[in-house]
Amino acid sequence: AQVLSVLVKTADEKVAERIGQNIAYVEKLARAELKECGPDVLKPEGAYTSIKDRLEVYVMLSGLDVGAETERLKKDLKKIMADLDRTEKKLGNREFLARAPKEVVEKEKTRQAEMGAKLAKVQESLKQLERAGE
Fold first, then answer.
1. What residues have CB less than 8 Å from 62, skipping those under 6 apart?
2. Same domain flag for 33 and 70
3. CA-to-CA distance for 91 and 112, rounded, in angstroms?
4. Boundaries of each Valyl-tRNA synthetase tRNA-binding arm domain copy (predicted)?
5. What total number of domains does the chain contain?
6. Which pLDDT value is given to residue 115?
7. Residue 70 and residue 129 in one domain
8. What's the CA gap between 100 and 102, in Å, rounded?
């Protein structure tokens, strides 16, 4: 298997520090060579972006199994859409809004915004892969 070149962008300094401290382990697990990690990492031209929690991982496309990654993203997309749909139904339910504590409603609104942003990033990643596969 070919080793992928990756860069990781994270605003969380603790995460960047942990990755840096465990670089050999991370590279072995990911079968990748980590070129750079931190909050100021810029996306290289022609790189594919994968979003995971508080990380944006930029993968150079040479060596990437585009088909497998596309399937993984489609699966993620279905899950995000289902979660977003559930959250939107809750927020559209007048009874929920009337009875739920204010902090629960705010938590759902925050969740809705986060999932909306994640959905957009996954859709963009799928578009990138489609362009790469052409």
1. 2, 5
2. no
3. 9
4. 65-129
5. 2
6. 94
7. yes
8. 6
Q: pLDDT tens, 84-108? A: 999 999 999 999 999 999 999 999 9
Same domain for 119 and 71: yes
Interval 7-45: pLDDT, tens: 899 988 898 899 889 888 888 887 788 888 889 999 888
Q: Please tell me whether residues 113 and 93 are part of one structural domain.
A: yes
User: What is the chain's length?
Assistant: 134
Say if residue 84 is in the same domain as residue 118.
yes
Residues ≥6 apart with Cβ < 8 Å to 6: 30, 32, 33, 34, 35, 57, 58, 59, 60
Q: Which CA distances in Å does 1 have to 5, 18, 32, 62? A: 13, 26, 10, 12
CA distance 17 to 24: 13
Prediction pTM value: 0.63
